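Minutes, methods subgroup
Present: GH (chair), OT, SY

1. OT presented the first of two proteins processed in the latest run. Sequence and structure tokens recorded below as shown on screen.
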Amino acid sequence: MPDRKSYEYAVFRIVPFVERQEFINAGVILFCRSLNFLEVMIDFELGRLRAFAPQADLKMIRSQLKAIQAACAGINETGAVSGMTQSERFNWLTSPSSTVIQISPVHSGVCTDPRETLKELFDFFVQKL
């Protein structure tokens, strides 16, 4: 049996009406410390959001999602995020917020291939809903 490694993940949610607390899942972030792995998968098409909240500012939401993707990769024009470790970036990105883009609680699991596990989580939480 292949060596299994622990990981943590969370789901990014778009909450177009914060006061109503309704959301649509838009992406998944996965961190596996032992394999030096931190990646995010995001649905930039936002097709379900268009049906759910047609007045939502898709351009602004896509821009924020791209900023999340860049921060996850350690790319930041200001340099603040780029100097963080993977663990610090994961913790920073999974901090609770009350904005249009929010994060689920962090969950954990074990896997042999974090990239494949990220794809499976993305398919389950974002694509198949």
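2. SY then presented the second protein from the same run.
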Amino acid sequence: MGFCLMRTHYHLIVEVDDGILSVAMQALNHGYAWDFNRRHGLRGHVQSGRYGSRRIADSAGLIATYAYVMNNPVETALCSRASDWPWSSFRGTLGVSERNSFVDDGPVLGCFPCELDPLVALRWAVERS
């Protein structure tokens, strides 16, 4: 559904079945740590702690979470608007840059009433936050 890569961490919004998230995150973080440590001649943990997660209950929660994630670079003064940050899925979803083939933006775009242009509504929801 969406991602945002930051300098020291990343955010993912994913839809997974029960019991899958911990296995997937272990595989993702282990693979990254292994490669990072190999490239830099280090050993041990790369991230400072276990990942955090929470379930998103409804469309309003999905929009709020999406806005939070996409605005993380704005909140840390790395850019002035979420659509300026090149290392997130937001630009691709808006059509400002090439879409990420592995991102399904349908669920977040489907949160808006059918009488609204979902891309305009999403941009407004994110950039007004």
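Chair's summary of item 2: The beta strands are 2-5, 10-13.
Next meeting: continue with the remaining queue.
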